[in-house]
Specification:
By secondary structure, the protein is α/β, with parallel strands linked by helices. Helices cover about 40% and strands about 15% of the residues. The strands form two sheets. Strands 3-2-1-4-5-6-9 form a seven-stranded parallel beta sheet, sandwiched between helices. It has a two-stranded parallel sheet with strand order 7-8. This is 1-acyl dihydroxyacetone phosphate reductase.
């Protein structure tokens, strides 16, 4: 059970090496009762020994799995509701649009957007009860249109506008909605990505190396990535400090924010397409 003077946080996507895992550790150290979730709980086994931490299996695309999580959290929060929900689960899918498999693209969108929708809808009454906060992990990818990431970029753009709309809808009930526009963070999301092998008939076959490098984070883009631990500390500070609406965190996020407003489209096109192999097609 959560002590009556302890706040609670549920975080999705807490596998070791990612943002969710770092957030779980950060909030636990700050005295929160943490409900850390992942599809496979063996991938966050180091969290099980921590005090005030519950590790749950949660598939954000499964209504049954979400309902089980709701029942568990309800039973362990003494009827006080949930103070913070952090929607962090996410997947990446890197391919030219013409070479994407629609089923795989839909699966990714289901996790990155519809999973957030479903989890938020399931926990919203508990958040209203606690006058809590919803934190959605959006991305600069929702503003920057990096080639070969069209559906991923679209999922993050959708998540950002979803969060801003939800912020207005939940304002009368005292619930904050924070959209974290995440910049470059050193995590396992790229290291765990599948290698995007293209068919030899692909119109982009000559750019396959650049596409693989992008997917695996080996494109030497020169961007300094913030550590997951530093990122988690900044975001936790924002949330606990009463932030609401969009916040920009992570490596390159401040520059991306500025460029998005001030950079002429043609110049930004050149920056985003540089080194992607498009000029050799």
């Amino acid at each position: 059970m959560v002590p009556t003077d302890t706040k609670s946080v549920l975080i999705t996507g807490c596998s070791t090496g990612g943002i969710g895992h770092a957030l779980a550790l950060t909030f636990q150290r700050k005295g929160f009762t943490v409900f850390a979730t992942a599809r496979d709980i063996t991938k966050m086994s180091d969290l099980t020994s921590l005090s005030n931490t519950h590790c749950l299996a949660l598939d954000v695309t499964s209504k049954f799995s979400i309902q089980q999580a709701v029942e568990f959290v309800t039973a362990h929060t003494n009827g006080r509701g949930l103070d913070i929900l952090i929607n962090n689960s996410g997947q990446q899918y890197v391919r030219p649009m013409m070479d994407m498999v629609e089923e795989e693209a839909r699966k990714m969108f289901d996790v990155n957007f519809w999973g957030v929708f479903a989890v938020t809808q399931a926990f919203v009454d508990m958040l209203i009860l606690a006058k809590g906060a919803i934190v959605n992990m959006a991305s600069i990818s929702g503003y920057w249109y990096t080639p070969y990431m069209a559906v991923y970029n679209a999922s993050k753009a959708a998540l950002a506008i979803f969060g801003e709309t939800l912020r207005l809808e939940l304002q009368p009930f005292g619930v904050r909605v924070i959209s974290v526009i995440t910049g470059a963070v050193d995590t396992n999301i790229m290291k765990n990505s599948s290698v995007p092998k293209l068919p030899t008939t692909s119109r982009y076959y000559t750019a396959e190396k650049q596409i693989i490098d992008l997917a695996l984070g080996n494109d030497n883009d020169g961007v300094k990535r913030m550590s997951a631990e530093e990122f988690a500390g900044k975001v936790a500070g924002d949330v606990i400090g009463g932030a609401n609406g969009k916040i920009w965190r992570g490596g390159y996020s401040s520059i991306a924010r500025l460029f998005n407003v001030l950079m002429p489209t043609g110049v930004l096109d050149g920056i985003l397409s540089k080194g992607r192999g498009l000029d050799a097609l």
